[in-house]
Structure formats: C-alpha cells, structure tokens
Inverse folding.
C-alpha cells in the first residue's frame, strides 16, 4: 500500500498510528502541506479533495479522508466497538473532531508553526483560540469520569482526537487547565504499539 503522507499532519498521523497498532506495512510518498502546486498532478486521479492522507490499496483502489481510512482498516478489530450504539458514538466523536476540533486546533497549529507565515495565525488568533478552547472544554467534560472517549476502551475515536490534541500547544493552546485531557493523552500514549507523530 502507498500512503500519500505529510510527516507533520495530524490527519496523516492518525493513519500511521493505527497501522502501527495493527502491524500493517505500507510505503509513503511525502507531500508538502505548504506547497500545493503539484496536488492535482499527484492526487487528482485518486482523491477529488486533493488532500492527504490519501491511500492506494494493494489492489490499486484509492481511499481518502483520515477517518474513512481508519474505519476501513479498524472495522472488525478491537479498535472499533461491536456494539451498535458505541459504534455510533465513535462516529459522533470523529464528526466532532472534523467539524469542531480540527478546523480550529489543527489550523492554528499549521498557521503558527508550519505555514512559514505566522502572521496569518495572528490575524485569526482570537477566532481560532476561542473555537479551539470550546472544543477542548467539550472533551474535558466528557473525559472527567472516563478513561477513553467511547465504551471505556481505546478506539479509533481516541486516535482521531489524539492526533491534534497532543500537539495543540504548537497552535498556542494551553492544556494546563485540562487535567482530564492530559491524563487521557498519557493513557493513549501508553497503549501498546503507540508511535509518536515524528516516528
């Protein structure tokens, strides 16, 4: 399999982390998250969104969007609950991640630390931090009396939200006031087979 990947992307990291847990071998093609000039040539036939991660399966079929890739490989494993309601809860948190979490926390991190134009972050700083802290507040409330996001066991919901939460400080988010999130981050990083984002 071939993963079109960016080493700094949390969305790509989700896929690499699940593959590490499952022992799935793959190769990578590194794609810049800053210079998008060759995206159409590189990904146009594979992913209409021209985004990474994009995966080419062994049989040549392409698959894009990080959470879709997680479901494709995790369904039927211990990383997706068998219970119908808990499966829906996993999706609930993955939709939350893409709609409420990633657009603020990941964007702030990218603009501040990886875009090469930190002034773009400063222009949007208040909006991004307000929305990002609202997402972190929701996670903190949920995790106050839970070990993991769904069903008291590690799942792809945790992988999805761990990816950008654990590097949120690179986007100027202070996790000091989020003890439940910090404890959850420690639990996730202690799961056997865990690899860091820079592995």
């Amino acid at each position: 399999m071939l993963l079109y990947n960016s080493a700094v992307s949390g969305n790509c990291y989700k896929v690499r982390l699940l593959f590490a847990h499952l022992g799935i071998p793959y190769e990578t093609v590194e794609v810049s998250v800053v210079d998008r000039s060759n995206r159409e040539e590189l990904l146009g036939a594979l992913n209409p969104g021209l985004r990474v991660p994009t995966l080419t399966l062994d049989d040549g079929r392409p698959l894009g969007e990080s959470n879709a890739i997680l479901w494709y490989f995790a369904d039927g494993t211990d990383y997706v609950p068998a219970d119908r309601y808990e499966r829906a809860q996993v999706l609930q948190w993955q939709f939350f991640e893409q709609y409420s979490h990633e657009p603020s926390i990941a964007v702030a991190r990218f603009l501040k630390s990886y875009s090469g134009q930190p002034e773009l972050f400063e222009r949007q700083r208040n909006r991004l931090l307000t929305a990002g802290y609202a997402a972190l507040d929701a996670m903190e409330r949920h995790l106050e009396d839970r070990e993991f996001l769904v069903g008291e066991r590690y799942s792809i919901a945790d992988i999805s939200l761990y990816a950008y939460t654990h590097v949120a400080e690179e986007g100027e988010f202070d996790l000091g006031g989020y003890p439940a999130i910090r404890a959850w981050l420690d639990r996730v990083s202690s799961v056997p087979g865990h690899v860091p984002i820079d592995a």
Notes: The chain has a mean pLDDT of 97.
